[in-house]
Design a protein that fits this description.
Helix content of chain B: 10-25%
Structural class of chain A: alpha/beta
Shape of chain A: globular
CATH topology of the largest domain in chain A: Rossmann fold
Number of domains of chain B: 1
Number of helices of chain A: 9
CATH topology of chain B: Rossmann fold
Shape of chain B: globular
CATH class of chain B: Alpha Beta
Oligomer: heterodimer
Number of strands of chain B: 9
Number of domains of chain A: 2
CATH superfamily of the largest domain in chain A: HUPs
Structural class of chain B: alpha/beta
Helix content of chain A: 40-55%
Radius of gyration of chain B: 15 Å
CATH architecture of chain B: 3-Layer(aba) Sandwich
CATH superfamily of chain B: Class I glutamine amidotransferase (GATase) domain
């Protein structure tokens, strides 16, 4: 079995050997980067600076939560609002791989800027096994370019440190519990954020739509799980499908977008089965989303595919 | 301690095979399929991983041929590794009429084979294949099948060589860990 204490001991030792001087950590506020920060902070403490980039594709209330978390973990931190730059770079881009690569490169450029100001050489990332496996290599097909591996630019001025490289999410959570990191049970959220939950062009306006839809899906599912009506899925969110279909709103023709609900059971993200959400919960989500979004969204579908053949996120 | 290496043919789940073996307290590491046989000779068994689409039927699959020729220890071929094993021993593999992805029901054909000890007659396994074994080598026999794939598992009649079309290494395969435990036991002997 996986021994979290043993892992922490070995990883801390290795980070101490690897990092000579100060380091930057890419901090999204998710389980992987939080564990990584706690681990590296243990190894090199005040030589670590956490950096959080607001891409404009974060979930509702997330930037504030992340700030609070960085404070709570006792990290030196920098918060960079780069949302305008991300929206600009992604304008007109529809291909999911191009989106992921643009986002990956943009992250690095923001990190490099801060690293230059602070004279830092090392970039710590919470990369885990599925990130590099799915990004592909000489032997492996690329399923999707994860922003922190396959999305990295060819040329960059930072040396990567990735202590969680061989772990899967369930193992990272074990390390999180051992390190008493409060976000240990938080559901996974991809680095490119809501940009890959918008099929097609990821604009600020569409981000707002899918952000609200994700918020409703999360809240309703969490309430139902708390009441014991269902198990909390491994991951649960909304996807914006920008094709238009016909509806009827107040005796008038409506012509709006579609939102898909996605909820899955998994352990390590390498395989998943779709979650069995009770119909009345799907019903509540459907009514709430379509009523709140008015003319923008008039159709809700539920994704019933496993991985394989699908993947968890749609892009 | 038993030592079993995982030969990496470029599968999405190669690293999962390594993890399952590690969890079973096996001394293990992932070795690229370009490694010389001398690098994988001092072990108690190997797993030939799956690989990118078509690799099992079109390419030479690295040095897998050499491992199959020279090794005397047990070998477990998975997906592309299984298809290559069939071709190496005189069988054949070709594109599936109905490729399988995700959840499939597996049915055991025999009830006394070592690899499936403790696995019920039918169980849920996870699949991900475009190709499959279409002709079982003469020296092999079929251990399990599914509705759309006749050769889900095969075993050499006299040697400890096994091939599986499905993926025992993923979490969603119900008795995957049991199958690995059985393989580890076979390698211990």
């Amino acid at each position: 079995m996986f021994d979290a204490e043993e892992f922490i001991e070995k990883a801390t030792k290795k980070v101490k050997e690897e990092v000579k001087g100060r380091a930057l950590i890419a901090f999204s506020g998710g389980v992987d980067s939080s564990v990584c920060a706690a681990l590296v902070n243990k190894a090199i403490s005040d030589k670590l600076i956490a950096i959080h980039v607001d891409t404009g594709f974060m979930r509702k209330g997330e930037p504030e939560q992340v700030k609070a978390l960085m404070k709570k973990l006792g990290l030196n931190y920098r918060f960079v609002d780069a949302s305008k730059e991300f929206y600009d770079e992604l304008a007109g881009i529809e291909d999911p791989e191009r989106k992921r690569k643009i986002i990956g490169e943009k992250f690095i450029r923001v990190f490099e800027k801060v690293a230059k100001e602070e004279q830092i050489k090392y970039l710590v990332q919470g990369t885990i096994a599925p990130d590099w496996i799915e990004s592909g290599d000489d032997l492996r097909d690329t399923i999707k370019s994860h922003h922190n591996v396959g999305g990295l630019p060819d040329k960059m001025n930072l040396t990567l440190v990735e202590p969680l490289y061989d772990l899967y999410k369930d193992e990272v959570r074990k390390v999180a519990r051992a390190l008493k990191v409060t976000v240990s049970e938080r559901q996974p959220f991809p680095g490119p954020g809501l940009a890959i939950r918008i099929i097609g062009e990821a604009t600020a306006e569409r981000a707002e739509l899918v952000r609200n839809a994700c918020d409703i899906v999360e809240k309703e599912i969490e309430v139902a799980a708390k009441k014991g009506e269902m198990d909390l899925p491994w991951q649960y969110f909304a996807v914006l499908i920008p094709i238009k279909t016909v509806g009827v709103h107040g005796d008038k023709r409506a012509y709006g977008h579609t939102i898909a609900i996605r909820a899955v059971q998994s352990v390590d993200a390498m395989t998943c089965s779709y979650s069995d959400i009770p119909h009345h919960v799907i019903d509540t989500i459907s009514s709430k989303i379509t009523n709140i979004m008015g003319e923008k969204v008039n159709r809700i579908v539920y994704d019933v595919t496993n991985k394989p053949p699908s993947t968890i996120e749609w892009e | 301690m038993v030592t079993i290496y995982v030969i990496d043919n470029g599968g999405q789940w190669t690293h999962r095979e390594w993890r399952v073996l590690k969890y079973l307290d096996v001394e293990t590491k992932i070795v690229p399929n370009t490694a010389a046989f001398s690098d994988v000779s001092d072990v108690d068994g190997v797993v030939l991983s799956g690989g990118a689409p078509r690799i099992g039927i079109e390419t030479s699959l690295g040095n897998c041929r050499e491992y199959l020729e020279k090794a005397t220890y047990p070998i477990l071929g998975i997906c592309a590794g299984h298809q290559f094993m069939a071709r190496f021993f005189g069988g054949d593999a070709a594109p599936s009429k109905v490729p399988e992805f995700g959840k499939i029901e597996l049915s055991r054909i025999k009830d006394d084979d070592l690899l499936f000890q403790g696995v019920p007659k039918t169980s849920i396994v996870w699949e991900s294949h475009n190709d499959e074994v279409t002709k079982v080598p003469d020296d092999f026999e079929i251990l399990a099948e599914s509705e759309n794939c006749h050769v889900q598992a095969m075993q050499h009649k006299t040697r400890m060589l096994f091939g599986l079309q499905f993926h025992p290494e993923v979490e969603h395969t119900e008795y995957g860990e049991q199958i690995f435990k059985n393989f580890v036991k076979i390698c211990e002997k």
